[in-house]
Design goal:
- By secondary structure, the protein is of the alpha+beta class.
- The chain folds into 2 domains: 249 residues, 3-Layer(aba) Sandwich (Beta-lactamase), CATH 3.40.710.10; 120 residues, Beta-lactamase (3-Layer(aba) Sandwich), CATH 3.40.710.10.
- 30% of the residues lie in helices and 16% in strands.
- It contains 12 helices and 16 strands.
- The strands form 5 sheets. The chain has an 8-stranded antiparallel β-sheet with strand order 3-2-1-16-15-14-13-12, sandwiched between helices. The chain has a two-stranded antiparallel sheet with strand order 4-9.
- A hairpin with a 2-residue loop joins strand 10 and strand 11.
- Helix 2 packs antiparallel against helix 12 and helix 3 packs parallel to helix 7.
- The chain is globular, with a radius of gyration of 23 Å.
- The N and C termini lie far apart (52 Å).
Length: 432
């Protein structure tokens, strides 16, 4: 009897150890590449691409993921999670996804639109009264003699009334002018985040910051303020703190167990953040808005490649995943429609902009292998994802060093591995 008990306890201990050290199973169905119309040999070029960047000290390591027809065909960890300890990268590494937070917030806003609590055309002042009557900055020529090389003068400007109020749609499409350029960035810095302030504490102060341009007249990226404002609207319209709404309404239903604003201190799966210098990678501190109290809709979330696949696959499926419907198909279709054409000043050739996502409107003009209608976004610390509805592909790239060059190469390396058409069958799970 005792011997049997010892074996049972020993087996339990062994299982516990294995659970702690063994890589987690993929958070979704796995397939051989050939079973989803992709080439194993060609997919190996992803590692070759990433390794070239690691060797060039573009970043310390990466996680890459490719799913097709709802099944993971490629998931690989490359390089190191931490240079100092030489800790190998893990496929379940946690990354600061920065602006890949924005499509999550876009999803939250559209859920509330479906519920009738928010309208895309609503003025922002409906939710945050301080945003009513925002002024628009008009730059003035610099006065006085030229400045010494390497120095810049504070921009001189005057303000005029806005032609109209900024709307939820303006924020979703980066056409609001809110903290979107030299003058507005400088003025916003004068009322910046202090200590452990919340969205409710800080955002009303932006009502005193002039817009960079008249709403709707151009596209200019609002790196943080625009989607921070949208997440505050989520709080007001839903009556819930942002972190609770996202967890209860998006992360839990989709099984995203590793997506949150602030991980536990010292989480061993948190990938070290680096910045690239002329000769090496240098460890970098978290941005000041990652303070434990401020829920940044512009760039506050952390996640894993497999977790982020869940929300991307939900969007590819027309708003549902595993029996959980977050959005209606028509809403997802609107989200990935080019509300902003590539002809609007500020947009890149071949890239329109939808409701929180870039949209490929002309693959030839963009010089990309992606299909027309592909959509997604990126993060400042080297994260990137896209969804190709025609090829039923989701691609996810996670690194922790700013690097724009690898994004397009990763897209093309994935797409060149397609050797057969995508399955024509619609997702089975059409309930709810």
């Amino acid at each position: 009897m005792r011997k049997s008990l010892k074996l049972t306890v020993g087996s339990a201990f062994l299982l516990l150890v294995l659970a702690l050290v063994w890589p987690l199973a993929a958070a979704g169905p796995v397939a051989k590449p050939e079973d989803v119309g992709m080439s194993s040999e060609r997919l190996r070029r992803i590692h070759e691409l990433v390794q070239r960047h690691i060797d060039a000290k573009s970043f310390s390591g990466a996680v890459t993921l490719v799913a097709r027809n709802g099944r993971i065909a490629h998931l690989e960890a490359h390089g190191l999670m931490d240079l100092e300890s030489k800790k190998p990268m893990a496929t379940n590494g946690i990354f600061r996804i920065m602006s890949m937070t924005k499509p999550v917030v876009g999803t939250a806003i559209l859920m509330l639109v479906e519920e009738g609590k928010v309208r895309i055309g609503d003025p922002v002042s409906r939710f945050i009264p301080e945003f009513k009557g925002l002024k628009v900055a008009v730059a003035q020529p610099a006065a006085g003699p030229p400045l010494p090389p390497g120095t810049t003068a504070e921009p001189r400007f005057y303000t005029i009334p806005g032609d109209r109020e900024i709307t939820v749609r303006d924020l979703l499409t980066h056409t609001s002018g809110l903290v979107s350029g030299t003058i507005s960035n400088r003025e916003a810095g004068k009322v910046g985040l202090k200590g452990r302030e919340t969205l409710a504490d800080y955002l009303p102060r932006l009502g005193g910051v002039p817009l960079e341009f008249q709403p709707g007249t151009r596209w200019a990226y609002s790196a943080q303020a625009g989607f921070d404002t949208l997440l505050r609207i989520v709080e007001i319209a839903s009556g819930q703190p942002a972190d609770q709404f996202l967890k209860q309404r998006i992360f839990d239903p989709l099984g995203m167990k590793d997506t949150f604003f602030y991980p536990a201190e010292g989480n061993p799966r948190l990938v070290t953040l680096y910045r690239r210098t002329a000769t090496a990678l240098e460890k970098q501190n978290n941005p000041n808005f990652m303070n434990g109290a401020y829920f940044s809709g512009g760039g506050g979330l952390m996640s894993t490649a497999e977790d982020y696949l869940q929300i991307a696959q939900m969007l590819l499926n027309g708003g549902q995943l595993n029996g959980k419907r977050l959005l209606g198909p028509r809403t997802v279709e609107l989200m990935r429609s080019a509300f902003i054409p590539d002809t609007l000043p500020g947009r890149a050739a071949g890239e329109g902009y939808g409701l929180s996502v870039r949209v490929v409107t002309n693959p030839i003009a963009r010089n990309t292998f992606l299909s027309q209608g592909s959509f997604g976004w990126s993060g400042a610390f080297g994260t990137h994802f896209w969804i190709d509805p025609k090829e039923k592909i989701v691609g996810v790239l996670m690194t922790q060093t700013a690097n724009n060059q690898v994004r397009a190469d990763f897209e093309n390396t994935v797409m060149q591995a397609i050797v057969e058409p995508a399955a024509s069958a619609e997702p089975r799970d059409r309930a709810n």
